[in-house]
Amino acid sequence: MKIITTIKEIREALKKERKKSKTIGFIPTMGCLHEGHLALMRRARKDCDVVVVSIFVNPTQFGPSEDFEAYPRDLKKDAEMAEEVGVDYIFAPAIKEMYPRECLTYVNIGKITEVLCGAHRPSHFRGVATVVSKLFNIVQPNFAYFGEKDYQQLMVIKRMAEDLNLDIRIVGILTVREEDGLAMSSRNKYLNPKERKAALVLSKSLKLAERMVKNGEKNLKTVKEAMTKLIEKEPLVDLEYLAICDSISLKDLLEIKGKVLVALAAKVGKTRLIDNIILEGD
Ligand code: PAF
């Protein structure tokens, strides 16, 4: 496995691979890798000849009062984990390499970035879409892999790829969970033991929604109220939003019918966590 830090070098290396007609699978990450990331890499390893992982904590997707500085960084450990699952290249640029001067060009995606997390993190998806576009232009992959834990991000990237006619297959991979149900996230590292325990209420509330819908509940308000009541029992958890919406357009629904997304964000202590589940109402 090669670790490359410049755009010039990664472009040259991948150009050689493309000349040999190799397919390229790409996993953009911000590092602090966990089993969720490794699942994306394993899938890319199965699908593609060459697997590229980027590790870049992207400043443009963090708000001014968010955790950009504190975001956990450990390239050595990340590289060991990536190598173990058969990654061929890590692209780990410095900020100056990706943003050598003031960035005047951004990728803005409408509507689906204005709801859910986008409503609470106003420039977040603009930063994500811009950096992912830049990385796509640098790596020029055939396939790119994203976790469903960041479901809205996956939908935003899919929409961007469609709207801009990118010749890249965007593949979503199921959320990987700890044994007790907590969705894997780099930010779980911030949780102290009490918060870690309290955070379980998030996946439990999604399971509750799943059970209710399986038992025939169609009333969105009833499901939301039951979930909120459960979450509010946990004093360390402060619910930011809870939404039940169309799984593609992310628009509000009147009732639970067809494929619906149940998504939430909450602060557990000072840590913001997100989770979601896709349910099938009949
Ligand atoms: O999901 C992430 O880790 C980031 O948002 C991404 C896609 C790597 C863009 O910085």
Describe the structure in your own words:
The chain is an alpha/beta fold and 282 residues long. The chain has 2 domains: 2-173, Rossmann fold (3-Layer(aba) Sandwich); 186-280, Pantoate-beta-alanine ligase, C-terminal domain (Pantoate--beta-alanine Ligase, Chain: A,domain 2). 38% of the residues lie in helices and 21% in strands. The protein is built from 10 helices and 9 strands. It has helices spanning 7-19, 35-47, 75-84, 95-98, 116-120, 124-139, 151-163, 193-198, 200-214, 220-232, and strands at residues 2-4, 24-29, 50-55, 89-91, 143-147, 169-173, 237-246, 258-268, 271-281. Helix 6 (124-139) packs across helix 7 and helix 9 packs antiparallel against helix 10. The radius of gyration is 19 Å and the shape is globular. The site of pantoate (PAF) has 10 residues, from strand 2 and helix 6. Residues 28-30, 58, 61, 128, 131-132, 150, 153 line the site of pantoate (PAF).
